[in-house]
């Protein structure tokens, strides 16, 4: 009897230690964890998450023919739940035959111009954001898995340089806020770790869906730095590094944020 109790006690200790080790292995926090319960419930409930309206629109656009070729996304890619599963976890990436990485919206526009013979959709365009949200939604719950290789690694290093470089009139870097001071409060709001786990996201501040580029541009304006144009390559390089920081974290698209 004593031996059984001892064995049972050791098993409990081992289980508790293992659970603690697993919990402590990754202390990174998604912006979801910094939100209050009400906003978390809004994101979790697809009938309450306003980002799902854009996902639904994206599903309609996926099946709608466009351009001189009169092709839809579905004509080439079939059912998105099958063909697009995991795709968003791997972007930005270098398309076949290209010499530089593109983000997911860039890849969607490449498909439009090359395969559908349609016009590019401009940054922050509702249809582009909806298609991006629809594609990314197919990977919700999957771990972020950035690509590697000599060329993409060089662009990621450029992104890390941008992340750590002080700039603007406030002489701040991304790292000062999101590494050194993450978890603290600024104007009553928790400073997040800046993991891009849910883009495109629905921000209550915007009352709309928006891209990571829009959020990064907001940060540049906030530190009184010169904001890049929305088609600047610096955004893609920075996103590559941010996705590396978030490697293994689960995609949440469409996320909700304050």
TrEMBL record:
EC numbers: 2.8.5.2
Enzyme class, spelled out: transferase
Span of the signal peptide: 1-21
Domain Cytochrome c stretches: 154-246
Keywords: Electron transport, Heme, Iron, Metal-binding, Periplasm, Signal, Transferase, Transport
Keyword Heme in annotation: yes
Subcellular location: Periplasm
Any Pfam family: SoxA-TsdA_cyt-c
Top-level taxon of the source organism: Bacteria
InterPro entries: Cyt_c-like_dom, Cyt_c-like_dom_sf, SoxA
Catalyzed reactions per annotation: S-sulfanyl-L-cysteinyl-[SoxY protein] + thiosulfate + 2 Fe(III)-[cytochrome c] = S-(2-sulfodisulfanyl)-L-cysteinyl-[SoxY protein] + 2 Fe(II)-[cytochrome c] + 2 H(+); L-cysteinyl-[SoxY protein] + thiosulfate + 2 Fe(III)-[cytochrome c] = S-sulfosulfanyl-L-cysteinyl-[SoxY protein] + 2 Fe(II)-[cytochrome c] + 2 H(+)
Record note on quaternary structure: Heterodimer of SoxA and SoxX.
Protein family: Belongs to the SoxA family.
Protein name: SoxAX cytochrome complex subunit A
Biological source species: Reyranella aquatilis
